[in-house]
Q: What sequence folds into this?
């Protein structure tokens, strides 16, 4: 299983109801952690992992995502004309451009689930395994979680690799959970996954975080996948159906993960990055949130 991972899929069509009213006009993927929108962290992570094609599965009401992601030459020209060359260069550095990057936007008109969102990208993927990044899950490195997964994918000997972490028993109902068969350092061997099980039914406490490297056969499974938990077409179910054929492994990434789909997770991520920013760290110290030696109080 040493094929190169060339494609990344970003499912960004969700309505973001958990963050209303903030997400009424602003897509949740554009909510900032400090000064950078969530989607940008995911894009940077994918680029660091050597991804060639980026596919965004979006919704017609979320045009702002495309405006953020793609280069805006007019804005850069205006900034340069006003002497803000540094800012213009910074924007150019992080933006994707049709001339230099391989970017595709596809629309998922109906909220039929994560599995359905991934299936929407099928006609646009490059040959080989595909990466999937859920921008709600912010994972701070180094190393970037996806690049770590990609470098371990070959030695895992499994077609499907999912990022995992251990969660308290009470939290299994929020995640896909692995049915673990063996542990080998960062690699967690598994023979299946269950979507959001109640604690008493959970096969383990090894929960899936929003990073996947999946064998290309996932699209065949998804095409015939029936709705599962919550009446949605679940990626978890399609992964499980392919396990016997391609194998499944969990990967314990080294970075720190924040659930930015929740207020508390957003705040925790913001504080984490603020503590690393000189100006913000001063404020946190004066508020007593951060000890003078820069450790969280
Ligand atoms: C999705 C997946 C779930 C996974 C989670 C990670 O759920 O369905 O298996 O554990 O992402 O964040 P969601 O959080 O979109 O409900």
A:
């Amino acid at each position: 299983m040493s094929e190169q991972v060339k494609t990344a899929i970003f499912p960004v069509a969700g309505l973001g109801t958990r963050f209303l009213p903030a997400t009424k006009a602003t897509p949740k993927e554009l909510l900032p952690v400090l000064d950078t929108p969530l989607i940008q962290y995911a894009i940077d992570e994918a680029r660091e992992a050597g991804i060639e094609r980026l596919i965004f599965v979006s919704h017609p009401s979320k045009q702002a995502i495309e405006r953020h992601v793609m280069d805006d030459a007019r804005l850069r020209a205006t900034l340069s004309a006003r002497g803000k060359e540094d800012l213009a260069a910074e924007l150019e550095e992080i933006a994707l451009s049709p001339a230099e990057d391989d970017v595709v936007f596809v629309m998922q008109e109906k909220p039929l689930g994560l599995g359905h969102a991934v299936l929407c990208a099928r006609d646009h993927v490059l040959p080989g395994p595909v990466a999937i990044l859920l921008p709600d899950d912010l994972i701070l490195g180094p190393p970037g979680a996806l690049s770590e997964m990609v470098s371990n994918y070959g030695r895992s000997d499994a077609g499907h690799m999912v990022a995992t972490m251990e969660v308290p028993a009470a939290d299994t109902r929020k995640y896909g959970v692995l049915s673990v068969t063996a542990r080998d350092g960062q690699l967690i061997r598994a023979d299946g996954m269950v979507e959001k099980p109640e604690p008493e039914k959970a096969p383990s406490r090894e929960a899936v975080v929003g990073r996947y490297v999946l064998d290309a056969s996932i699209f065949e499974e998804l095409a015939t996948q029936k709705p599962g938990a919550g009446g949605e077409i679940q990626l978890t179910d399609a992964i499980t159906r392919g396990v016997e054929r391609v194998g499944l492994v969990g990967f314990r990434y080294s970075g720190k993960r924040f659930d930015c789909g929740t207020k508390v997770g957003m705040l925790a991520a913001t504080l984490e990055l603020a503590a690393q920013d000189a100006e913000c760290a001063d404020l946190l110290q004066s508020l007593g949130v951060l000890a003078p030696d820069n450790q969280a109080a």
Notes: The first strand starts at residue 7 and ends at 11.
